[in-house]
Amino acid sequence: MTRYQRLATLLAQRIEQGLYQSGERLPSVRALSEEHCVSISTVQQAYHLLEEKQLITPQPRSGYFVTPRKAAPPMPAITRPAQRPVEITQWESVLELINGRLDRDNLQLGSGTPDVSSPTLKPLWKIISRIGQKQDLALLNYDNIYGYPPLREQVARLAIDSGCRLSADEVVITTGCHEALSVAIRAVCQPGDIVAVESPTFHGTMQILRGFGIRVIEIPTDSVTGISLEALELAFEQWPIKGIVVVPNCNNPLGFVMPDARKRALLTLAERFDAAIIEDDVYGELAYDYPRPITIKSLDVDGRVLLCSSFSKTLAPGLRVGWVAPGRYFDRVIHMKYIVTGSSAMQTQAAVAEFIRQGYYQPHLRRMRQQYQRNYDNFSCHVRHYFPCGICVTRPCGGFLIWIELPEAFDTVRLNRELHASNIQVAVGSLFSASGKYRNCLRLSYAMPFNPRTEQALATIAAAIESAMERCSLLPAAEPGTAQAVESRAGAKG
C-alpha cells in the first residue's frame, strides 16, 4: 500500500469513527503534510481518493469537508428458511443468468466472474504462448486421471497457507471447481439422499444436487458467523443427512468468513453424526486479511472433509482448472471423475503450474485482494449514497460479491426484467435458495474497477428500487438527517 493510500485509509477510519463529523471541514493539505511528514502531493492524492469514494467534498477556496451522508445500512439478520427436505427448483432463472454473459452490451453486475484484465496476468499469456510454441505432443494427449503431476504438487504447496498438510497424491485435478463439487457430491451421496446447505447458497451447488436427485435442507445462516450450528444439529436429529455443503471462507453470496471456533464445532458435529463435509474454498484465497483463513479441511483428522477449489476466481474462469482433496473418498472421486470427464485438458494445467512455479501467482493474488477491497469501498459507498433506506447490506470479508436485502414484499425478479431495458443484469436472490426464497434479495458483483458506467448502473438500479418501493408503499418514514442525502441522490440521478 502506498503512502497516500495509507493516509486515505487513516482519514476514512477517522470519518467512520466520527472523529470528523458530517459536514465538518478537514485539515488543510499543508497541515496534514506537516502532521504526517509526507509531501503535499501525497496529501492531495489521498484527498482525491477519498473524493472518489464520496467520503469528502471539495469546496472552492474553503478546502475539503466530510460529505453529509446516510448511516451505513444494517447487516441482514440470520436467514429463516423452511427446515425440511425440499426439491430444488430455479433452473430456468439460473440459465437466464448464465446466458446473460453472452450479451456483451449488458453490464453483468450479477456474475461471479473475476477481473481478468490485470497486468499481473501478462506472464500467464506468455507462458501459454511458449507452451504452444514448444509443440509438445504429450500436451495434446489424454492426461492421467489424477491430473498433471507438477500442478498437483503446486496445489499441495499452496494449501499450506490454509493450514492444510496435503501431499500431491491426495489432490485430484478437475475441470474447474464446478466439477470438483460435482464429483465430491456424487462420491458421498446417492439419489434420494438428503444434504444440508447454507441458506442462501451458491446456485451452482443447488443445480448439481438437483441433477443428481438429491434433496436439500436449507439451514439458517448468519451473515457474519455462517451456518447455524444449533439449527444444523436439530436437522441432524430429525433427518438422515448424508453430507453438508458449506462455503466457510468468503462465502458466496454473503461474504462472511466463518470463525475458526465455529469451523471446529461444525467438524465435531459432522463427526458425531458421521456425515461428510464438502467444503467449497473457491474464494478463500481472496480474503482481505492476511494470513488467509484456515479451511475446515485443515482440522480434519479422519478424512471426512472433501476440499474443493479452483483457479477460476483467482486467475481466470476460462482456464477451467480446479481441484479436490477428497480424503477417505479418494477412490470414489476418481471413479466419478472418470464417469464425468475421464481427464482434464493438459495445456491449461501446465500453464497454471508454471505460472505458480515461476513465482507469479502470489504477487497476482496480493494485487487482486487489494483491488477488490478498494472496489468494495467504492461500491458500498455508492450503494449507501444512491439506494433508499430500509435495506440491509452485507460487509464481505473477501472476494467480490455483495448481498442486498430489500423489504420482504419486494420482487427482484421483476426488477431484473425492468433493468433489462437499461442493459443491466443482477443476480436475483431466489437463485440461491432451493425453494425460491429470497426473492426480495439480490447479489451484485464489484469485481471490475469502479467507473462512471458502474456508478450510473447503481443509480439506475437504486431509482428502479425506490420507484417500486413507492408504488408498493415499502419506503420507510424519512429519518432525521436524511433529507439532504435524498436530495443529493436525486441530484446525482439528474
From TrEMBL:
<keyword id="KW-0663">Pyridoxal phosphate</keyword>
<dbReference type="GO" id="GO:0030170">
    <property type="term" value="F:pyridoxal phosphate binding"/>
</dbReference>
<keyword id="KW-0032">Aminotransferase</keyword>
<keyword id="KW-0805">Transcription regulation</keyword>
<keyword id="KW-0804">Transcription</keyword>
<comment type="similarity">
    <text>In the C-terminal section; belongs to the class-I pyridoxal-phosphate-dependent aminotransferase family.</text>
</comment>
<dbReference type="GO" id="GO:0003700">
    <property type="term" value="F:DNA-binding transcription factor activity"/>
</dbReference>
<dbReference type="InterPro" id="IPR015422">
    <property type="entry name" value="PyrdxlP-dep_Trfase_small"/>
</dbReference>
<keyword id="KW-0238">DNA-binding</keyword>
<dbReference type="Pfam" id="PF00392">
    <property type="entry name" value="GntR"/>
</dbReference>
<dbReference type="GO" id="GO:0003677">
    <property type="term" value="F:DNA binding"/>
</dbReference>
<dbReference type="InterPro" id="IPR015424">
    <property type="entry name" value="PyrdxlP-dep_Trfase"/>
</dbReference>
<feature type="domain" description="HTH gntR-type">
    <location>
        <begin position="1"/>
        <end position="69"/>
    </location>
</feature>
<dbReference type="InterPro" id="IPR015421">
    <property type="entry name" value="PyrdxlP-dep_Trfase_major"/>
</dbReference>
<dbReference type="GO" id="GO:0008483">
    <property type="term" value="F:transaminase activity"/>
</dbReference>
<protein>
    <submittedName>
        <fullName>PLP-dependent aminotransferase family protein</fullName>
    </submittedName>
</protein>
<dbReference type="InterPro" id="IPR004839">
    <property type="entry name" value="Aminotransferase_I/II_large"/>
</dbReference>
<keyword id="KW-0808">Transferase</keyword>
<dbReference type="InterPro" id="IPR036388">
    <property type="entry name" value="WH-like_DNA-bd_sf"/>
</dbReference>
<dbReference type="InterPro" id="IPR000524">
    <property type="entry name" value="Tscrpt_reg_HTH_GntR"/>
</dbReference>
<dbReference type="InterPro" id="IPR036390">
    <property type="entry name" value="WH_DNA-bd_sf"/>
</dbReference>
<dbReference type="InterPro" id="IPR051446">
    <property type="entry name" value="HTH_trans_reg/aminotransferase"/>
</dbReference>
<dbReference type="Pfam" id="PF00155">
    <property type="entry name" value="Aminotran_1_2"/>
</dbReference>
